[in-house]
Write a structure and sequence with these properties.
The protein is of the alpha/beta class. The chain has helices spanning 80-86, 105-119, 131-143, 157-165, 180-193, 215-223, 239-253, 273-279, 305-314, 323-337, 343-357, 398-407; strands at residues 5-10, 16-17, 32-36, 76-78, 90-95, 123-127, 146-152, 169-173, 197-199, 230-234, 262-268, 317-321, 366-371. The protein is built from twelve helices and 13 strands. The strands form three sheets. A six-stranded mixed sheet has the order 4-5-13-10-11-12, sandwiched between helices. The structure holds zinc ion. The site of zinc ion (ZN) has 8 residues, from loops.
């Protein structure tokens, strides 16, 4: 097998650019996309060791330059109890929280650090308060590459502990996430101070190649031959959704699939500019005011057109859900299926329920939710109220207490 990458080109006007080009098209402002040779059949015999099984469908990296922690091939789990609870025929959960740092961002970080080796860069930088920062820091540590992470002035401490374990250089920036242009300015300044370092901010308008690893989630689902009618995808910048779309389209072109699942963009109410744009039939995302949602990993007030195009192309839709719906869904999937996902992932499950209630999907259809991160990622917000857990006053009185607990029907640890 040989690598199938052809070029990096504008999605609108097809102008081609060098592989390491870090911006929109200079002619028409379009987002750039990687193009591949898609002749022949898509291979189906893989070792299942990491997403690098699919290296021929990623930007070219020599084997010795790959930085991997075994990311990819995450579980794709049937969730019959949750499906029955909400009244849908079938639901699968793709557990991206099982990646090495606990989120889907590991796929992009693995490619990003591999490109650092391939292109001979001296370090990496990015802006992130959360999962991307953890992933990029971890893979930098693995690669022995210097790493700078710009965080907001009041970055939430839940995720900082994990990020700091990998010892990146951290710099707080006031007003970092005010708008897409404040971010762009911050990253441009970092690049000018560190010209030999690679910008790994995972957003297609800045960094088109980092969408590519998310295609492998589509490959993994398709190779399981359990393809849902709909896939519900939490959206911040839109890279995950756009990557899934590209993956399924490639598989269709190569004859592995006849049709592609409908992709559903999911956001929290109060931070749903992409969903609003889809509902209004716009071609671009309009920036909104300060975002508010309990789902911290997708708390954004901007987006870009690539996710809107991907939703339209698949015949999907956009939907947003309230904080209450999100937190309920997080609890229910844990109680029904033993799956503890990040709050921002539970948004996808809440949205399946909402879509069913409002007739956007039918009870006899099937859906998958991409659960982007592990529940321990924002563990401080998980309920850990000891006063709700029954207490045996001594070891010797345990059997008496236990009988009472069972008699009261409190067979779950948390009543
Ligand atoms: Zn163009």
């Amino acid at each position: 097998m040989t690598n199938r990458f052809r070029s990096l080109a504008c999605a609108n006007c097809a102008t081609t650019y060098p592989t390491d080009f870090h911006s929109r098209c200079t002619k028409c402002k379009g987002i750039l996309v990687a193009r591949y040779r898609l002749d022949g059949k898509f291979p189906t015999d893989f070792e299942g060791r990491s997403m690098w099984d699919f290296a021929d469908f990623l930007p070219p990296v020599k084997k010795e330059n790959i930085v991997s922690l075994g990311e990819g091939w995450t579980p794709y789990v049937e969730s019959p109890n949750f499906a029955m609870r909400i009244g849908l025929r079938h639901i699968w959960c793709k557990l991206e929280g099982c990646n090495p740092t606990g989120s889907f961002k590991d796929r992009a970080a693995s490619l990003g650090l591999s490109l650092v080796n391939e292109w001979g860069k001296k370090g990496v930088f990015a802006a992130s308060d959360g999962n991307a920062a953890a992933a990029i820091s971890a893979y930098s540590a693995r690669a022995r590459i210097k790493c700078l992470i710009l965080i907001s002035e009041d970055a939430p401490t839940q995720k900082l502990a994990q990020i700091m374990m990998y010892s990146p250089t951290l710099l707080r920036v006031r007003g970092l996430y005010e708008s897409a242009s404040s971010l762009e300015s911050a990253l441009a300044q970092a690049q000018s101070v560190l010209p030999d370092w690679l910008n790994l901010f995972i957003w297609a308008p800045f960094n088109p190649l980092l969408v590519e690893p998310y295609k492998t989630i589509a490959y993994e689902i398709a190779l399981r031959k359990e393809i849902p009618d709909y896939i519900f995808i939490p959206v911040a910048g839109g890279e995950l959704l756009s990557g899934l779309s590209r993956g399924f389209q490639e598989l269709r072109e190569m004859g592995l699939l006849n049709g592609v699942p409908k992709l559903v963009a999911v956001q929290g109410k109060g931070a749903d500019p992409t969903v609003q744009a889809i509902e209004k039939g716009l071609d671009e995302v309009v920036e909104t005011g300060p975002p508010t949602t309990v789902a911290g990993a997708i708390r954004v007030n901007f987006g870009a057109e690539h996710s809107i195009m991907a939703v339209k192309k698949s015949g999907g839709f956009g939907i947003s859900v309230t904080d209450e719906q999100i937190l309920n869904a997080q609890k229910q999937i844990a109680r029904d299926e033993g799956i503890f996902c990040e709050i921002s992932s539970a948004v996808a499950l809440a949205a399946i329920s909402e879509a069913l209630d409002h007739g956007k999907i039918r009870a006899d259809e099937t859906a998958a939710a991409i659960l982007t991160g592990a529940g321990l990622k924002d563990y401080l917000s998980a309920e850990a109220d000891l006063s709700r857990v029954p207490l045996s006053e001594s070891v010797s009185s345990l059997s008496t207490t236990l009988r009472k607990v069972i008699a009261a029907g409190r067979t779950q640890i948390v009543a």
